[in-house]
């Protein structure tokens, strides 16, 4: 408008019409967009006041251009000076007031947004705290009940171990007792019967049927005596108590070869005092069970038994090159009893696979257990 009022301008006033039309379109667009995104909500009076101010401004512009088009440049300039500039000032004041209100409501909105953020933040903290407390309480409860469970498991496992060890001890003492009774009582009776029958036979006439029958009965008594003795040895080898583990194994291995039909290679190394007493019977039973397992499960026809006296104690191995422990291995009591016997001896037992397949059972007994009664 300042340029339009400048009388020194070479252009007529109508030359500004296109520029003002562009401004009008831009301003309309801008107001429509502002209406959509405005933070502050305007009252209907405010909206009406702004609309009226704009309409009056553009009316004055139209009037001014109408005057200019009819060649009344001086009247048109007068219109600018008197009416248009005043309306533009009114419009600027209205816009400035709206801007101030915009700023205020933006500030209020920012405060409200901040309050919402603070509330959400507080709620998130509460939620997190409640979740953490719940997790901590659940974990504590879990830890306590797991501890109780483990303590119960531990005591049950100790009770089971004690029971199994007592069962093993009871079995051994029963077998020992029966074996001794068979050997001593029945053995003595059968021996006495044998010598009485021998004496009675001598009194019978030579070649008589009575003498032949007495000899037959004597032979029967002798074979029963042999059977009773071997049954007594099988239940509890007395040789173990008298001479020791090595002698018992030397007697047992050929017997087992005959009984189950496998070849047993026996190797022995190192020197030490003979192993007798309860330690001897536990080692003997481990070898017995391992060889029974070779015969029953391995499918091999040969086994190796090794007895090594080391400085720290005794190493006993039973090896076969058969099927080995498969995934379908059954659940018997043999391995459990072997483990318990190793435990009673204070030693260890391992079930290994040799390089060329099969099974290797290795029992290690510390030397203190071999000396004392366990
Ligand atoms: N030398 C072996 N070769 C292959 N498999 C074996 C051998 N020793 C044991 N096993 C496997 O391990 C399983 C468990 O053996 P364990 O001695 O405990 O039980 P069992 O011999 O089946 O029965 P039990 O000894 O109580 O009469 C067996 O069923 C068998 O499958
Ligand atoms: Mg077995």
User: How much of the polypeptide forms β-strand, as a percent range?
Assistant: 5-15%
Mean pLDDT across every amino acid position: 91
Strand order of the largest sheet: 1-2-3-5-4
Helix proportion:
over 70%
Rg calculated over all Cα atoms: 57 Å
Q: Supply the number of helical segments.
A: 10
Q: Structural class of the helices, strands and pairings?
A: alpha+beta
Q: What small molecules accompany the polymer chains?
A: adenosine-5'-triphosphate, magnesium ion
Biggest pleated-sheet summary: 5 strands, mixed
- Element pattern in H and E: HHHHHHHEHEEHEEH
Given as residue ranges, the uncertain stretches (5+ residues, pLDDT < 50) are none
Distance between the termini: 121 Å
Number of strands: 5
Globular, elongated, flat, extended or rod-shaped: what is the shape?
rod-shaped
Provide tags for this entry.
binds adenosine-5'-triphosphate; alpha+beta; binds magnesium ion; 374 residues
Describe the structure.
By secondary structure, the chain is an alpha+beta fold. It has helices at 2-5, 17-37, 44-69, 73-203, 209-235, 238-242, 245-260, 277-298, 334-344, 367-371; strands at residues 263-269, 302-309, 313-320, 348-352, 359-366. Strand 2 and strand 3 form a beta hairpin. Helix 4 (73-203) packs antiparallel against helix 5, helix 7 (245-260) packs parallel to helix 8 and helix 8 packs antiparallel against helix 9. The N and C termini lie far apart (121 Å). The mean pLDDT is 91. The chain binds adenosine-5'-triphosphate and magnesium ion. The site of magnesium ion has 5 residues, from helix 8.
């Amino acid at each position: 408008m300042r340029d339009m009022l400048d009388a020194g301008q070479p252009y007529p006033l109508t030359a500004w019409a296109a520029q003002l039309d562009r401004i009008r379109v831009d301003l309309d667009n801008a107001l429509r967009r502002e209406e959509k995104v405005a933070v502050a909500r305007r009252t209907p009076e405010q909206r009406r006041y702004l609309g009226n101010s704009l309409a009056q401004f553009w009316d004055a512009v139209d009037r001014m251009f109408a005057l200019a088009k009819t060649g009344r440049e001086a009247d048109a300039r007068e219109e600018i000076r008197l009416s248009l500039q005043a309306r533009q000032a009114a419009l600027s004041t209205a816009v400035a007031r709206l801007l101030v209100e915009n700023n205020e409501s933006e500030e209020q909105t920012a405060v409200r947004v901040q309050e919402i953020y603070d509330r959400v933040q507080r709620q998130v903290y509460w939620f997190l705290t409640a979740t953490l407390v719940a997790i901590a309480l659940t974990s504590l409860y879990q830890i306590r009940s797991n501890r109780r469970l483990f303590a119960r498991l531990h005591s049950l496992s100790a009770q089971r171990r004690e029971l199994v060890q007592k069962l093993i001890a009871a079995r051994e003492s029963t077998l020992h007792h029966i074996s001794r009774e068979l050997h001593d009582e029945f053995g003595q009776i059968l021996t006495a019967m044998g010598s009485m029958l021998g004496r009675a036979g001598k009194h019978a006439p030579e070649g008589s049927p009575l003498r032949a029958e007495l000899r037959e009965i004597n032979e029967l008594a002798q074979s029963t005596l042999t059977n009773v003795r071997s049954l007594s040895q099988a239940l509890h080898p007395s040789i173990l108590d008298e001479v020791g583990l090595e002698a018992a194994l030397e007697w047992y291995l050929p017997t087992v070869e005959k009984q189950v039909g496998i070849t047993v290679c026996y190797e022995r190394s190192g020197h030490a005092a003979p192993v007798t007493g309860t330690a001897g019977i536990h080692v003997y039973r481990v070898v017995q069970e391992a060889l029974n397992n070779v015969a029953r499960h391995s499918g091999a026809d040969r086994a190796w038994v090794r007895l090594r006296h080391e400085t720290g104690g005794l190493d006993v191995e039973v090896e076969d090159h058969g099927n080995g422990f498969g995934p379908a291995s059954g659940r018997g009591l043999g391995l459990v009893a072997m483990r318990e016997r190793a435990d009673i001896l204070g030693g260890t037992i391992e079930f290994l696979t040799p390089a060329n397949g099969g099974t290797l059972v290795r029992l290690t007994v510390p030397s203190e257990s071999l000396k004392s009664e366990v």
